[in-house]
Structure formats: structure tokens, C-alpha cells
Amino acid sequence: MTDKHSQATVKVEVEDLDSSVQQFRYRELPPHWQKTMALMTAVAIVLAINQIFNLGFLVGYVMLDSRYMYLVTGVMLCMVFITFPANRNSPNHVPWYDVAIMVLIAIIFSYFAYFAERIVLEAWEFAAPTVGVVLALLTWAVVMEAGRRAGGWPVFVIVAVFSFYPTFADQLPNVIAALSIPVQDVAIFHVMGEESLFGIPMQVFAQLVFGFLVFGICLQYTGGGPFFINLAFALLGNLRGGPAKVSIFSSGLMGSMSGGPISNVLTTGPLSIPAMRRIGFSKEYAAGVEACASTGGVFMPPIMGATAFVMASFLNVSYVTVAIAAIVPSLLYFFGLFMQIDAYAAKHDLQGLPEEELPSLGSVFKEGWYFIVVFMALIWMLVFLQREAVAPFYATGLLLVINQFTSHRLSIERFMQLVATMGKLLAELAGILAAIGLIIGGLAVTGIAGTIANDLVYLAGENVLVLLVMGALTSFILGIGMTVTAAYIFLAIVLVPALTNSGLDPLASHMFVMYWGMLSFITPPVALAAFAAASVANVSPMRAGFEAMRLGAIIYFVPFFFVFNPALLLQGSFMANTLAISTALVGVALVSGALQGYLLGIGNLGQRWAGMLVRCLVGLSGLTLALPAGGLFGFSQWLLSGVALCLLAGGLLLRTTVVTTTESGSVDLPPAT
């Protein structure tokens, strides 16, 4: 894989993202609006750096957190109305009404920023002057519209219902009823309090996530994407089914940086999917592999997108605690994908790419060694120095300085593209998270969240397994219409308290709803990551979706495993963690072999009804072995291992009988219909 090929990879990445995503969601801005966006992005970054590093720019002192929140939110809300059109009538220009909304935002948020001290000292969230009430009502409407543009109608509808809920709560059934609150009082609580618009989502975004988004985008635009893809080809390209394994490795790393399954598919898919097709993978299988790998990257440490930071704030723990807990579940997921691909390749005799077509590991490291150095520096600052807020800024600075002395140094044009992409991503997340904050406010001002949690426990009959199934289905349904972060925040308020009230580990409960909210990306009928991969592979979206669902099957079980026993989140003793992880890995390998009909070291498991029975027995054996001992059900490891061994022995004995019977010339069982 030559330098020319690497350049082609970059071209594919940028063009694909622009043509496939920007065409439908983002405006094609004229030059003067591009410069305006660049200026606003720079202002937002300067405000964030000033506050996070306590620099005291311009005024000589660190501003109040509330003043900072008003200023940075106002800037980013203006960016929303530049970036996202209200409808399809303004795809390449900013109409007058969007300019009017931005002027209104500037006036409103400047007013709030100016009176930030009075808002806090005089408790305007409970009794504001008339001007403050009117501006709060206008802000409420603007934030909801920003959420609609950035997140779509599902976000708008859910935010509208829950943000207005306090105004009609007394007219609802007793189960979800509460005291009614006048609309003006709800408005000032939303805008001037610390539990709604400027609650956990926006606080985490403005103080923690901001830097990681900047780092992730800079990593991609300085050549990080091609480096990780070439590194994957150098390490895995010549193995059995190599291009599919490359997809797992590269998409996992890219997804960890970008935090978005769809953009990840569109970045790595144009290279990995054709390579998979070339050695014999079917179109739908290649699309399924790419969709699963890109989705899994979102919960792959060390970055994990915005959701992990929000989770850390809900749990009041460090981000490192959440990232460490995510290591084993993400390892099991990618290990399951790897084993399935290896089994599929062995079953169909699919070889890797020729050595002469692959880049050498030495040349790849020679070109991109500094990406590894920057990653190590980031992890060192996160884990050992515990500097979560400032670490990504230092890592970004180190990356940009080193990059300017390499062949990937940024030109002015490329730097402007970087800033434009950064502005779009900041605007999108700010619009969604500001709107989602109103949901928290609607539930907080009425105190209904605790009541809902108790009602869920009552409906489940205090049966934890029933409650988990209810939670999984709710998380999945919400994940269909909302972003992962938005769905997680809602569930963390409403559902997680019910799980923890039932005696489940808080961290495991939060991880459970996050994982299930993400599964909608690979599960039909709305498998967005699979549909994006299908467009690259030129195959039916539903066929790609069902293939992705089958390939990612293990992730449907992993959340239940770590809820049953948090040892899989590294929350137990060393021996408990080691035992749970080792048995889970063997169990996942057995499940993967059963799903593909080929067990490593054994061979083909059969084709007809007898083969299906063999696969079921092997799969059940793997699930039993992967189920952690102790925990919720209290099964001993000896019992689980014994049951798993019996199921596996029965399956292999049946396979041997079928193979012997077939070889002797007897008639096999009729094929499955």
C-alpha cells in the first residue's frame, strides 16, 4: 500500500463524508458564512480554554461558570442556525429568519451573561424580573428549535413533551401526576437554574467533552485515519479473512476517536468493504462487518465519544473509572467479531491479501509514529495525572506541533476544512445536548423521576430480570429515534434509578442502558450504521442490517453478563475478574463458532437439521460459560462450567455421529425450511 494509496484514502474519507452526510444534513455555506463559522468556532474554543485552564483572558480573572455557560452556549447555538437548515428550501444559504434568530440569541445570552452574578445571588430561577421571564420563554423556544435541527423531529417531540410536562402534570393519571407549575416559572427554572438547560449534559460538554472533540477531529485531519487503516493492513491484511479483520481494528480505533457510528462507516468503509469483497466476502457480509466494527468503536476506550463523560458526571466518578469499566465489554465484543470472521473465512477458505500489496509495518510506523506517541501522552495524562479536562488540549497541541514537521502538515486550506468540521460537530452536539437538558429540567422541577423509578420496579413485580428486559427494550426503542448520548441521558434519569433500587451495581446499570441504546445502529428496522455500510457496499440495506445483527449478536448478551456480575467491568477482586474474563472469552469463542457453523479446531458443524441442533448446543454451551459466576443468580463457576461442558460434549458427539453417518452413505436429515 503506497503513499499514493494513503492519499487516496484521505480523499475517500473527506469526499464520502461531504457527499453522503453533508448533502442531507448540513448547509453548503458560501465563503463569507464559512469565515463566520470559523470565527465562531475559534471564539468557542478560546472561551473553553480560558475557563478550563483558568487563564483569565481579557478581564484578569476567571469568570463565573454560569457566565461562561451563557457565552459559550450562545455562540454554539448561533452556529446551529448557520449549519443546519430549517427545511430543504435553504441548502446553500442562510435565510433572513435564521439571521434574525441569531441576533435574538446574541441579545438574550448577552443579557444573561451580563447579569450572571445577579441571577445566582438573587435566585432568578425562582423569581426573575419581567424581562428575564420573557427572555427565558424565548430561549426555551430557540433551544427546542435548535434541538430539532440538530437531532431531528424525534428529539423535538420528546423534549417538547417533557419540558412542558410540569405545566400539565396535574391533569395526568396518578402514576405520573405531579403538581402543576405556571409556564413562566418553568421557563425561568429551565434557563436560569443549574438542573435544566445548563444541567449535566451541557456542563459536561462545555467543560470536558469539548477538548476531546477537538482532539478527535485534529487526529483525523492530520492523517490519523489513514495511519490507523494502514497499520491495520500491515498487521492483519495477510491473515485469513484479513480485510475483514482490518475493518475491526481500524474502525474500532476510528470510532473511539469520532464517537459516531455513521461517520465512522463512511470514513473506513470505502477502503475496507472493497478489500473484503475482493477476497470473497459477500456484499452484505462485508457491510455487516463494517457496521458492527464502527458501532463497537463508540464504546471503545480511551475516548468513547461524549456519552462516557456524561456517565462519569451522573455517577460522580472520574472518566478513567468509566473507561476502565468499558475495557472488558468492548474486548468481548471485538473478540466475538474477530472469531466470527475467522470462522467464516476458514469455512469458505478465504485467504488474506498478498504480502506485496500490503504496506510494511516499518514504513507505516516511520510515517505515523507520532500518533502513537500522542495517544500514549493522552492516556498518561488521563490515567496517571487525572487531568481529564486539560489532557486533550495538551495532546492536540502536541499533535499539531509534531504534525507540522511531517509530510502531513496542514495547509491553510486543509486547516480551514478542519475548523469547518469542528464547528459542525460542536454545533450538532450543543444543539442536541442543550435540548436534552430541558428533559432533565422538566423531571427535576416536579420530582417525578423517583416516582417513575419506583413504578417501574412495581410493574416488574420486583423481578430484576423482567426489569432488565424492560430496560433493554426501552433503551433500544429510544436509541432508534435519538442519538446514543441523548437516549442515555433520558434513561439515566428515568430507568437507572429503578435498576439501582433493585440492588444492581450503579456503574453496571449505566453501562447497560448505554449499550442497549447503541444497539439500534445494527438492528433492523432502523439499523443506521448498517444502512450507511449498505450504501458503500451497494447492497440491500435490510440484508446488511440482518447480517450486522447476526455478527454483533454477542453484544446483545454482554450487557446482561456484566449486570449479573460486575466482575466483567473489573469491579471485583483480581481473581474474580480474571476468572470471569477468561471464561467469558472461551464462551464468546464458542458462541461465535456456533453462529458461523464452524468451530476452530473442530471444523464444520453441519448443514441440515442435525447441524442446526449441533450449533444450538455449542451456542448454549458458550452462553453458559460466559455467564459470570456469583453475582445476581449466585451460580457457582463449577456448576456453570459443568453444564457448559455437558452441552458442548453433546453437541460435538452429535456432530461426530452425523459426520460418521454421512460418510457411511446413510441419508442425512432433511434440510431446514
Describe the protein's architecture and organization.
With 673 residues, the chain is mainly α. Among the domains are: 15-202, no CATH class; 573-663, no CATH class. It is 72% helix and 1% strand. It has helices at 3-25, 31-52, 65-83, 96-114, 116-121, 130-151, 153-168, 183-192, 200-221, 224-236, 242-258, 261-279, 283-296, 307-315, 319-325, 327-347, 361-383, 391-403, 412-446, 448-459, 464-481, 484-494, 496-501, 506-518, 528-537, 541-551, 558-564, 574-596, 609-626, 637-663; strands at 598-599, 603-604. It has a two-stranded antiparallel sheet.
Low-confidence stretches: 1-23, 665-673
The portion of residues forming beta strands comes to under 5%
Q: What is the alpha-carbon Rg in Å?
A: 26 Å
**Count of strand segments:** 2
Amino-to-carboxy terminus distance: 45 Å
User: What summary fits the major beta sheet?
Assistant: 2 strands, antiparallel
Total of DSSP H or I helical runs spanning 4+ residues: 30
**Shape designation:** globular
Mean pLDDT: 84
Task: Please supply descriptive tags for the structure shown above.
673 residues; two-stranded antiparallel sheet; 72% helix
